[in-house]
From TrEMBL:
This is Dehydratase. Pfam families: 3Beta_HSD. Belongs to the 3-beta-HSD family. CDD domains: FR_SDR_e. One of its GO terms (biological process) is steroid biosynthetic process. Keywords: NADP, Oxidoreductase. Residues 15-158 form the 3-beta hydroxysteroid dehydrogenase/isomerase domain.
Length: 325
């Protein structure tokens, strides 16, 4: 029996930040499904993304006419409450993800403050917008698995070996080992949940694995501690298409709740690790294998589970066959 889905005819939704890989693809898929989309491009300190350049990605093909009709582009600064409110006006939902500002592209010990402030502003703006029915908040798997479970400690203590969205990364552990991406994502998501519950806001989070893309490099902040992830069997990746499907599914399914750990591949064998290392570094590099600390034998790992999301997505229609006219 198919799950109850939202009646999304004439629905207006907002995607913020719409300029990244995830945001742009989400905008495209939502337009395909017949939504009217407010694409909010983050504007940090007047460093504008070019609107014409953004719109160019949606030109061409038989869909372009309807896309132009149903797409409205905004500049928004996640640290500017009023610019967020402008983008949310009339929207029934927000898809929110955070990308570092151009002047601060790498995660460091100060990024958590910026990301927490942005999450607070966005959730508060949604709570003050009468039309918002649901918020889909993109977090990370690094907000789930970073804690002292290495080298079988959990198993020795007799605990449950499974890791899923019920787990949270330990803030002290992240600070101790300078896992700034995990720290920022954990603190921002916790802040968002605290405020959403206080304001009675309907919110779900997607805790995404490493997003696979052609431009992925070893400098990706998610990959700090990649060797330890591999050793523990928690180095999880997700294809962009699957990630976008997951976002739309948790929005449209009225039964969705809480957090969803989102990945569709686990790097838990030496063969997979070498393949990823070769992708992350140029062929001429002598440090390919060392980038993931590949060993001769496969790691002894804990189990990481995305069962909750997979169960929800069993009956998800990921085609555009039910377009809203």
């Amino acid at each position: 029996m198919a799950p109850d889905m939202l009646n999304h005819s004439s629905k207006i939704v907002c995607v913020m930040d719409a300029s990244g890989r995830l945001g742009t693809t989400l905008v495209h898929r939502l337009l395909q499904r017949g939504y009217i989309v407010h694409a909010a491009l983050h504007n940090y300190q007047h460093l504008h993304h070019d609107i014409d350049e953004f719109l160019e990605t949606f030109k061409g093909g038989h869909e372009s006419k309807n896309f132009n009709k149903n797409l409205k582009v905004f500049h928004s600064d996640p640290l500017d409450y009023h610019s967020i409110m402008d983008a949310l006006k009339g929207c029934s939902a927000l898809f929110y993800s955070f990308d570092p500002p151009p002047q601060q592209p790498n995660y460091d010990e100060f990024m958590d403050e910026l990301e927490v402030m942005a999450a607070h502003n966005v959730v508060e703006a949604c709570a003050q917008t009468d039309t918002i029915e649901k918020v889909v908040f993109t977090s990370s798997a690094t907000a789930v698995f970073w804690r002292d479970h290495h080298r079988g400690h959990r198993h020795q203590e007799g605990g449950d070996d499974d890791i899923d969205e019920r787990n949270w990364s330990d803030i002290s552990f992240c600070k101790k080992f300078k896992l700034w991406h995990g720290l920022s994502k954990t603190m921002a998501e916790k802040a968002a949940w605290s405020l959403a519950m206080d304001r009675g806001l309907n919110m779900v989070t997607i805790n995404s694995g490493l997003i696979m893309s052609p431009d992925l490099t070893i400098k990706e902040p998610y990959l700090k501690g990649a060797a330890e992830m591999f050793e523990d069997g928690i180095l999880v990746t997700v294809d962009l298409k699957f990630l976008v499907d997951a976002h739309i599914c948790v929005f449209e399914d009225v039964s969705s709740y809480g957090r969803y750990l989102c990945f569709n591949h686990v790097i838990n064998s030496t063969k997979d690790a070498v393949k990823l290392a070769n992708m992350l570094l140029p062929p001429s590099s002598n440090d390919q294998h060392q980038s993931l600390d590949v060993k001769k034998s496969d790691p002894q790992h804990v189990r990481i589970s995305n069962k909750k999301l997979c169960k929800l997505m069993v009956d998800y229609d990921n085609t555009s066959s039910q377009l809203v006219n």
